[in-house]
Amino acid sequence: MVNGQSFIRRVQPHLEQGDVEGLAATVRENWQLSDLCRLLSDPLIAVRRTALLTLGLVGDESVVGPVGRTLHDEEEIVVEDAERALWSVWFRLGSDMAAPSFRRGVQLLEVSDWDGAVERLTEAIEADDGFAEAWNQRAIAHYGADRYAESLSDCEETVKRMPSHFGALSGMGHNHIGLGQYEQATDAYERALSVHPRMPAIRDALERLRHRPTNGRRGSNGQSPPNGRDDHANGH
């Protein structure tokens, strides 16, 4: 049984100094990642938050499930920490071969070079087909270029590899709206909120879908998804 207070005392100096290597070494020497995951249900908020920060920095795919369940924590600040931890882990799960192209693709996304980003992220996918976040980031690039069908396909590939990926589930909703597929958008947003209930932009989008007139215009250039490129869709 890991003592939460002792855990904080051991890792806090590394966290304050931004010493990720030292943090990883301390974790390896003293605990299993599963031990830290058990701290996510500790009654003290400080323990849960410190565990999430640590898992975000040194965790692997094995922590995604436990951290994902913390998205349902009663404390909003803990949920925010869990979201950041998941994005951090997701971004690190690719192979060394995929990493350079992935990093470059993300950089190109940040300057809205959609086609350049697609090219580099395709290279990352070819190097590591199982790298869910490469598929998700390419989905964002396609979405930025208004290629909704291609973006939707990449979101679906992301979810195949990472079923709890609330960003890709939200992206599926955005793309269904872009394609005029409002029932499917509703389903996608509901799935996203079942994973991550505290996404106000997605909840607002869902409410608007539920109350939209049934005789509204439909088509591939239908209403734009609200806040479609917010941080719940791309991890930034």
What does this structure look like?
- By secondary structure, this protein is mainly α.
- It is 69% helix and 0% strand.
- The chain contains 14 helices and no strands.
- The relative contact order is 0.08.
The helix content, as a percent range, equals: 55-70%
Q: Segments where pLDDT lies below 50 for 5+ residues?
A: 215-234
Measure the end-to-end span.
35 Å
Overall pLDDT score: 91
Q: What is the count of β-strands? A: 0
Biggest β-sheet strands, sense, barrel? none
The sequence of SSEs as H and E is HHHHHHHHHHHHHH
Could you tell me the radius of gyration in angstroms?
Answer: 19 Å
Number of helices: 14
Helix and strand content put the structural class at mainly alpha
Strand content of the residues, in percent?
Answer: under 5%
Broad shape? globular
Quick tags:
236 residues, mainly alpha, disordered C terminus
